[in-house]
Amino acid sequence: MISSSFRDCQAWSAEGLILSTSSNEACKMYDAVLTQYVKWRNDDSLGGIEGCVSAVQAADPNFVMGHVISTGMELVATTSSTRLDERLSSAVRRTVELANSQDITSRERLHVKAMELFSHGNFPKACEVWEDILLDHPTDMLALKFAHDTYFYMGAQMPMRDSVARVLPHWKPHMPLSSYLKGLYSFGLLETRFYDQAEKVAMEGLALTPDDAWSVHSVAHVCEMKAELDKGLKFMESREKDWEVSDMLASHNYWHWALYFIEKRQHEAALQIYDTQVFRRCKASGAMLDIVDACSLLYRLEMDGVCVKERWQELLQVTRPHTDDHVTLFNDLHFLMVSLGAKESGTSRRLLEGLQELAKEPGDNQQHQLAGTVGIPMCQAMLEYNQGNYSQAVELLYPLRYRMVDIGGSDAQRDLFNQLLIHAAMKSENKHHQKLGRCLLVERDAMRPNSPLTHRLMQKALALHD
User: Fold this and answer.
1) Predicted confidence (pLDDT) at residue 196 exceeds the cutoff of 90
2) Which of 24, 47, 54, 115 is the most buried (most CB within 10 A)?
3) Is the C-alpha dihedral spanning 40, 179, 75, 340 positive or negative?
4) How far apart are CA 388 and CA 398, in angstroms?
5) Kindly report the CA angle at 43 between 38 and 49, in degrees rounded to 5?
6) What integer best gives the mean pLDDT of the chain?
7) Do 445 and 227 form a contact (C-beta atoms < 8 A)?
């Protein structure tokens, strides 16, 4: 891919997406960054996203949308908090100052506003602003993708689906990146349980772009949610060469592959994926998606009776520096899994106390507002479970069953907390809880027939409480 294939000032204007810069190079490099973000892939021939961000800033240091895309992507990655990271918070301020000192389009102004709202943790308002942009500019891929990712962090499943559905008719096949809308739409469909339609749309995306890792990821989810394990294993293996090149999503797709193995109780195969792919990649990339996947794999394996204690210690080195971030509750819960697994009670306590402190005066931060009612009780339930206080864990988790969606992530990722509740209920001394555990398993079986994990747990529940 050479820079001549990217859009210059004129090309962006022709699409009705004017960029306020006179530098064609800045426009092309902006396009290069956007393209890699959408493809989940650093293109080494361009110097990756970092190289292209540097090239944008070299071409025009005052190009507002250049700052919006680079700072916005860093914020949306949730790897650092503007509360603690002075460099990141000053990058946000600089973007706002640049926007205020220039004559830019109203669309660009809205982009700056949305980015600033996100930086304060005001996810719902940021999404409203991106949707405002999409009303007038339905082909603004940056607004669409930022909104998509942020809805995901809020567990806003229907808005995530509908946001893409609304703009689809405006995208024509000749437009750059248009085929990637299939993967985005498919993901919204599957998170709202339209599994067959989600699979169909994802396969349409893959017919157009075989290396679209997000469409692959959608199919992986469908197989997971329907417990079609052999189909999922075959699919991931047959397309591995296509999706493993998407360095920003490869680890997550390997994570899905490992889930099939855990479901089938092939623990060695799951551990091998953890060691050779997921942990190796998360250590190298430091990307949050890679980190939380590593946390969740170990927690699931441990719940399923596998000893992973040395691995907890190694992973703690990656998660511990994020203990005070508190960017999303989803991340916090995953860091807590590691400090509990590694028996680092000081780190666990620090994480929980930090969250309690922020929940007292959350301001506009949507995640901190939710901490008191959802995030903190979920953390406490994990602590109780870890200490063998199973009935307390049930008392904390059970009332939150239908609110857990608010911590964000996908149904597949949050399923770990459903499993935790079932394990706690089964292990509780309380007869009422034991009955609840069996009821939850019946319900799980109705939603995902043929799940070997469900059947194993049912047999275990019967054996335990005969």
Assistant:
1) yes
2) 115
3) negative
4) 17
5) 65
6) 97
7) no
Residues 6+ apart with CB under 8 A from 323: 335, 339, 347, 350, 351, 354
Q: What letters, b where the CB count within 10 A reaches 16 and e where it falls short, cover 190-208?
A: bbbebbeebbebbeebbee
Residue type, 13: S
Residue type present at position 184: L
Six token digits for residue 127: 């999404």
Cα torsion angle, 97, 76, 246, 188, sign: negative
CATH number assigned to the domain covering 1-151: 1.25.40
User: Using alpha carbons only, what angle is made at residue 95 by residues 93 and 100, rounded to the nearest 5 degrees?
Assistant: 95
| Residue 376 one-letter amino acid | I
Dist. CA 458–CA 466, nearest whole Å: 12
Residue 306 gets the label, from left (phi > 0), alpha (psi -120 to 50) or beta, of beta
Q: Where are the domains of the chain?
A: 1-151, 172-245
Among the listed residues 329, 326, 365, 367, the one whose alpha carbon sits nearest the alpha carbon of residue 120: 365
Rounded Cα gap, residues 270 and 299, in angstroms: 12
Segment 418-466, tens digit of pLDDT: 999 999 999 999 999 999 999 999 999 999 999 999 999 999 998 887 6
One-character DSSP codes across 377-440: HHHHHHHHHHTT-HHHHHHHHGGGTTTGGGG-S-HHHHHHHHHHHHHHHHH-S-HHHHHHHHHH
CB 209 within 8 A of CB 228: no
Q: What is the pTM of this model?
A: 0.97
Cβ pair 92, 115 in contact under 8 A: yes
Q: Write out the E strands in 290-401.
A: none
1-151 and 172-245: identical CATH topology: yes
Domain 172-245: CATH class, spelled out: mainly alpha
Question: Residue 336 corresponds to which tokens in the numbers above?
Answer: 């807590």
Type of residue numbered 229: L
Entry field: residues in the chain: 466
Q: How far is the C-alpha of 410 from the C-alpha of 408, rounded, in Å?
A: 7
Cβ within 8 Å of residue 176, ≥6 positions away: 7, 31, 35
